[in-house]
Amino acid sequence: MELKKLIADNQIQLEDIPQIDLYMDQVIQLFENTFGSTTRNEEEKVLTKTMINNYAKGKLFFPVKNKKYSKEHLILIAFIYQLKGALSINDIKSLLDGINSRTAEGELDLDHFYQLYLDLAKRNTDAFMNDLENQAGRAAELNKGKPSQLEKVLLASSLVHMSNLYRKAAERIVDEVKETEDEDGK
Questions:
Q1: Nearest by Cα to 77 from 20, 27, 13
Q2: Distance (Å, rounded) from C-alpha 178 to C-alpha 186?
Q3: Using CA atoms, how far apart are residues 87 and 3, in angstroms rounded to an integer?
Q4: Angle 89-104/148-183 helices, nearest 10 degrees?
C-alpha cells in the first residue's frame, strides 16, 4: 500500500491569495483549485455558495463588504474549511470569535497568524507521515500473514481511534477558549 497516496494535505498559501477582493464564485474557484484533489470523489464539493452564506449568517467571519471577500475573509474561510472536518460549526465560531474581533479591530496581523498555522500544518504533515508508516508497520506485524484486507481494517481502525483522541482534545481546547473569553467579558 502506497502510504503517500492516503493523504492529500493541500493548503492555501499566503502567496496564493490574491491581493484584490474576490466575488463568491472566485472564492469557490480558488478553493476548488486548491482542495479539489483532497475530496473523496468528484461529486463532493469543497465549498459552495450555501456553505459560505451559512458561515456568514453564523458570524464565523466578519461581514463582507459589497459582496466581495477580502484576503482576511479568505484566510478565515481556509481556517473554517480545515476545522469543519473535526469540529462543529458552534465550536468553530467559538474558536474564531476572538480572531475575528481582533482582526476587525486591527489588533491581529492575520497574515502572520495564518503563516504560523501553515508552518505548524507542514510539521504536522511530516509527523503524520512518520506516524502513519509506524501504524502501518504495527498493523502488518499484528496481522502476520493474514489477508491484507484485515491489515487495512486494523490500520483504518487505529487511525480513527487517533482521530477521535485528537478531536476530543481539540474540543476541550475550544471549551477552554470559550471559558477564557467569557471570563474576559468578550
A1: 27
A2: 10
A3: 26
A4: 50
- Residue 15: other Cβ atoms inside 10 A: 5
* pLDDT by residue, tens only, the chain of 186 residues: 555 655 666 889 999 999 999 999 999 999 999 988 888 888 889 999 999 999 999 999 999 999 999 999 999 999 999 999 899 999 999 999 999 999 988 899 999 999 999 999 999 988 988 888 888 888 888 878 776 788 888 888 988 999 999 999 999 999 999 998 777 765
Dihedral (Cα; 171, 40, 149, 160), 10-degree rounding: 0
Other CB atoms closer than 10 Å to residue 102's CB: what's the count?
14
Instruction: Tell me 12's DSSP state.
Output: -
Q: How many alpha carbons lie under 13 Å from residue 155 in its C-beta half-sphere? A: 20
pTM, rounded to two decimals: 0.86
Length in residues, the chain: 186
Give the DSSP H/E element, type plus range, for residue 91. helix 89-104
| Cβ count near 93 (within 10 Å) | 19
